[in-house]
Amino acid sequence: MRNIFEAPFIKEIADTTANMYRLGWNERNGGNISMILDEQEIENYLDINRVIREIPLTVAFPNLAGKYFVVTGTGKYFKNIKDNPSLNIGIMRVSEDGSKMNLLWGYDDGGKFTSEITMHLGAHEKRLGVDENHRVVMHAHPTNLISMTHVHEIDDVKFTKTLWGTCTECIVIFPDGVAILPWMVSSSDNLGLVSSEKFKDFRILVWALHGMTVTGTSLDEAFGLMETVEKAADIYMHIVNCKVKSSITDEMLRQVCNDFHLETKKGWL
């Protein structure tokens, strides 16, 4: 077997989480990431038939049976993943009936997956239904985005259009818009299931007064969505109390969509 600590997917998630912590998006044990792995990616590093232990799920996901995931652990700090990945992340396979996760590697101290696992698996299930190349669910607590939810209306269209209006890049990066949910208790199955429904139509979901979850085909894509939304929220928070003399109109957004061959949701522009 090859050294799993040299596996590209371990290095990538370690580098990504370290960067997210550096940016201040994932303080303490805040935030979580899960990524789908192909069996071929891991079979040279692990005995996929050796199950260390079974960890039950509170909500079953039979549609994900047999799929492999690398998932950050509950209570773990992103800043520690790079130096000690086997303590802070785990590699798992969803059981045949979707009711539990079979741990194949990691969580060396007896820990388990993130407390937001229902949201993660629900998001994976819904995104795979619209994009077979989907792989990543990423949750963080970006400062400006959270700040924005304190002062902005909690509405998908209005929130999205405010973000689009901060700089021309935004509608190019996320023409499908941003979904936003009002405050709900975090780490609950209810929040996870309600969030899952949003991921049928969106790659980006904001939890008011809490944070943001993004999805993507790779860690890079998901990270790029998050940093673009956070940059837009930063601009908004800088100008929200200023006298604005120039702004991006719907007509300007339409011009961008025409030039970049983008489609937005019907009626949003």
Residues in β-strands, percent: 15-25%
CATH architecture of the largest domain: 3-Layer(aba) Sandwich
**How would you state the average pLDDT, rounded?**
97
Form type: elongated
Number of DSSP-assigned strands: 9
Q: Main beta sheet, described?
A: 9 strands, mixed
Ranges where pLDDT stays below 50 over 5 or more residues in a row are none
Specify the CATH homologous superfamily of the largest domain: Class II aldolase/adducin N-terminal domain
| Number of separate structural domains | 2
What is the number of helices?
A: 11
Describe the protein in words:
β8 (204-207) and β9 form a beta hairpin. Strands 2-5-4-3-1-6-9-8-7 form a nine-stranded mixed sheet, sandwiched between helices. The chain has two domains: 1-115, 3-Layer(aba) Sandwich (L-fuculose-1-phosphate Aldolase), CATH 3.40.225; 116-269, Class II aldolase/adducin N-terminal domain (L-fuculose-1-phosphate Aldolase, 3-Layer(aba) Sandwich). It is built from eleven helices and nine strands. It has 269 residues and is α+β, with helices and mostly antiparallel strands. The mean pLDDT is 97.
What topology emerges from the helices and strands here?
Blueprint: H1 8-22, E1 32-37, H2 39-42, E2 53-56, E3 68-72, H3 78-81, H4 85-88, E4 89-94, E5 100-106, H5 117-130, E6 136-140, H6 143-151, H7 156-164, H8 169-173, E7 179-181, H9 189-198, E8 204-207, E9 211-216, H10 219-239, H11 250-260
Helix pairs in contact: 5-9, 6-10
